[in-house]
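Postdoc handover notes: sequence design on the structure in folder B. Input tokens:
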């Protein structure tokens, strides 16, 4: 079943107009021309690839495929960039640690433009150690890492990582479980475990930075996956989503459960948040995605896929574009405003979704006018045009390229 809203195009067009500059500056996706004669424009993107077999993260320049550094870690990582793109978190849950990498790409906002600075990538001495660290979530200038093995949350700012004697705060949230914590101002939205430690999470609640509960638990069975868009967080549940909206003034966030039970078979467990427009894109079962518009009378638009989904990503610069790779090797361009797939092209050999969930399969990262796709079986990164979905070139990568993050953008430089 597909639900659409007649207000969607008008609402999103308005949000895009008012929010495009902020989103572009925040992601480093664009820079306006500068009238100062001593400054020129520079565009630079760098890829970071986690190997599936070797315990390394490789940094690779998108433009020419040059080696930008190889960083040895304890195990195959999940990679999460900071909102600024300056720092990359390499989460190694089974090894009980999170490594931090300076990506070497930084932006400085000057209002009408952003300056870009490009230096060498480097493995930072700061690590976040625990029992089984997992989800990394940033909000309100604070980074939270949830430890599944203890139920504790580690809190710090990006700037703390380069200070001498890095000592982040730790807050207990309850029993150990596969959970998450999203910072929202002076509060955190955290998952709530079931009494049975083997059972799925039961909901979400708000706590303060001392770990004290604020308000009641909001049902969100099996809560998994989150994203932020325009200060609103969305969380996936087995029966819908929960939206967390900032409270007025110093008030705590407001949690609202929205059911998806009338949409048919499927649930949301992975989410991406729009940057220049307020929306979310989530999975909906194995072979569909759902566009979510907070505040709409009809917030869900389910889009079926031709076969099962492997990975998907949003384009931070082309706000209406989302890219979805399916197990038949097809890459699909989804127009989130129209709520339909408008273009498809084969980009890899098929990768079946049968087997173990950790088996090496392609992952996507958007870098300006290109989509970088790891192809583990071929030992390549495939560089695809966002305009045509055609492969422009490949970058050979040692080992088995798997997880991938792209950082960079355009800015002025002296």
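Designed sequence:
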């Amino acid at each position: 079943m597909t639900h659409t809203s007649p207000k969607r195009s008008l609402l999103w067009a308005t949000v895009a107009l008012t929010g495009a500059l902020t989103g572009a500056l925040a992601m480093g996706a664009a820079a306006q021309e500068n009238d100062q004669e001593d400054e020129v424009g520079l565009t630079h993107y760098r890829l970071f690839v986690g190997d599936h077999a070797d315990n390394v993260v490789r940094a690779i320049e998108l433009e020419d495929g040059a080696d930008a550094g190889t960083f040895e870690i304890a195990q195959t990582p999940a990679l999460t960039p900071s909102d600024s793109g300056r720092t990359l978190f390499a989460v190694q849950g089974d090894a009980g640690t999170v490594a931090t990498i300076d990506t070497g790409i930084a932006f400085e906002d000057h209002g009408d433009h952003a300056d870009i600075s490009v230096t060498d990538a480097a493995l930072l001495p700061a690590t976040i150690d625990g029992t089984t660290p997992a989800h990394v979530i940033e909000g309100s200038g604070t980074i939270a890492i949830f430890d599944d093995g203890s139920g504790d949350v580690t809190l710090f700012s990006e700037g703390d990582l380069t200070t001498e004697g890095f000592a982040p705060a730790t807050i207990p949230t309850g029993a150990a479980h596969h959970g998450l914590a999203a910072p929202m101002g002076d509060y955190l939205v955290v998952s709530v475990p079931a009494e049975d430690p083997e059972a799925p999470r039961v909901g979400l609640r708000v706590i303060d930075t001392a770990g004290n509960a604020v308000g009641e638990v909001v049902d969100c069975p099996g809560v998994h996956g989150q994203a932020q868009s325009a200060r609103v967080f969305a969380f996936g549940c087995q029966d819908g989503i929960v939206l967390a909206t900032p409270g007025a003034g110093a008030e705590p966030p407001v949690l609202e459960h929205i059911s998806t039970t009338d949409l048919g078979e499927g649930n949301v467990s992975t989410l991406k948040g729009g940057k220049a427009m307020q929306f979310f894109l989530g999975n909906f079962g194995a072979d569909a995605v759902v566009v979510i518009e907070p505040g709409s009378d009809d917030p869900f638009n389910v889009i079926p896929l031709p076969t099962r989904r492997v990975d998907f990503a949003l384009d931070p610069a082309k706000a209406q574009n989302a890219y979805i790779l399916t197990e038949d090797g097809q890459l699909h361009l989804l127009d989130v405003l129209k709520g339909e797939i408008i273009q498809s092209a084969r980009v890899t050999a098929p990768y079946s979704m049968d087997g173990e969930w950790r088996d090496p399969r392609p992952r996507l990262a958007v870098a300006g006018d290109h989509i970088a796709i790891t192809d583990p079986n071929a030992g390549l990164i495939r560089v695809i045009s966002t305009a045509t979905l055609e492969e422009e070139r490949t970058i050979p990568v040692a080992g088995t390229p798997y997880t991938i993050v792209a950082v960079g953008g355009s800015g002025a430089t002296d």
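Context for whoever picks this up: The first strand starts at residue 40 and ends at 51. Don't rerun without checking with the PI first.
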